[in-house]
Amino acid sequence: MPSWLAGTLAWVEPFAALPPWLRRRGAVALGLGVAALALLAGLLAGGDGLVPGAAHAVLAATLLLAAASLALLVTALLRQQHLYRELAGRLREAGGMDLLTGVAGRSRFAEAVEREYGRFRRYEQPVAAICLQVDFFNRLADAYGEDMADRLLVRLAALVRQELRDSDLVGRLGECEFAALLPGVDSDGASTPATRICEGAARLCLPSDLGDLRFTVSVGVTHFQHRDRDGQALLRRAKVALGAAVFAGRNRVALSDGVLLFPQREKTRQD
User: Fold this and answer.
1) Is the distance from CB of 242 to CB of 219 less than 8 angstroms?
2) How many CB atoms lie within 10 A of CB 59?
3) Cα(first)–Cα(last) distance of the chain, in Å?
4) pLDDT tens across 59-82, in order?
5) How many Å separate Cα 158 from the centre of its chain?
6) Rounded-to-integer distance, Cα 243 and Cα 154, Å
7) Whole-prediction pTM value?
8) 241 vs 132: CA distance, rounded Å
9) Between the CA of residue 210 and those of 136, 142, 150, 196, 266, what are the distances in Å?
10) Torsion of CA 247, 218, 116, 257, to 10 degrees
């Protein structure tokens, strides 16, 4: 095979592997770009023979085609990135487990919540839930990069599991949101490990080329109540408590009955 043909195939094969919709948009963008270059070349070659109005029209058409080509490429890349993130999210929950952190995925955790709700209704044994999220996670990811953000989530998941019992279930509900089910305890009993998690996260330090990454978490705590009609009521109330912790200034624990805990301040007073 001639070298020029092998080189051409090396460029064509990656393009052929793209999704059909992306190939179509890429081809249209390439055509618009070529047309813009042709118009620009014609303007430069015969610019002296064109009247001012025609030259301006050709230049405007060139810029319009170039802008349209760039817009098509940008929108195609953004859509491809969105599809990739959706696929990565589905893969993370393959088999009911979050592949990045090793904790339960959203679907598996939701099933466990409903099972615990059934046991609560039958035996009236308390079940608590902890819901937490990384404070200013998007800012940290933008500043330190996606790889460091993933390392942060892995370390946080390990910390949460470390501070809980083997019988407790930890799950990842969102990009930077985790939850835990604690059978046999109420909100007061769950507030102790929740406080340890909040304090432990503030002590974590992840070295990087851009400097040490430090972060905090906000935590909401609640437990099943007799008025709950399904298991999801537990998670909804835990998220409301989490929102209260965020609203109160972050880096703290909030109980669903309105109690706010300030683990870092308490630790400072004890010292």
Assistant:
1) yes
2) 15
3) 76
4) 566 666 666 666 666 666 666 666
5) 18
6) 23
7) 0.65
8) 10
9) 17, 12, 15, 28, 31
10) -40
Q: Cα 91 to the chain's mean position, in Å?
A: 14
CB-CB contact of 128 with 221 (8 Å): yes
Amino acid, res. 266: E
User: What are 172-193's pLDDT values in tens digits?
Assistant: 999 999 999 999 999 999 999 9
Confidence of residue 3 (pLDDT cuts 50, 70, 90): low
pLDDT of residue 165: 96
Q: How far is CA 54 from CA 42, 43, 77, 198, 221, in A?
A: 12, 10, 35, 68, 70
Q: What is the pLDDT of residues 148-175, one digit of tens each?
A: 999 999 999 999 999 999 999 999 999 9
d(Cα 45, Cα 85) in Å, to the nearest integer? 46
Cα separation, 179 vs 98, in Å, equals 13
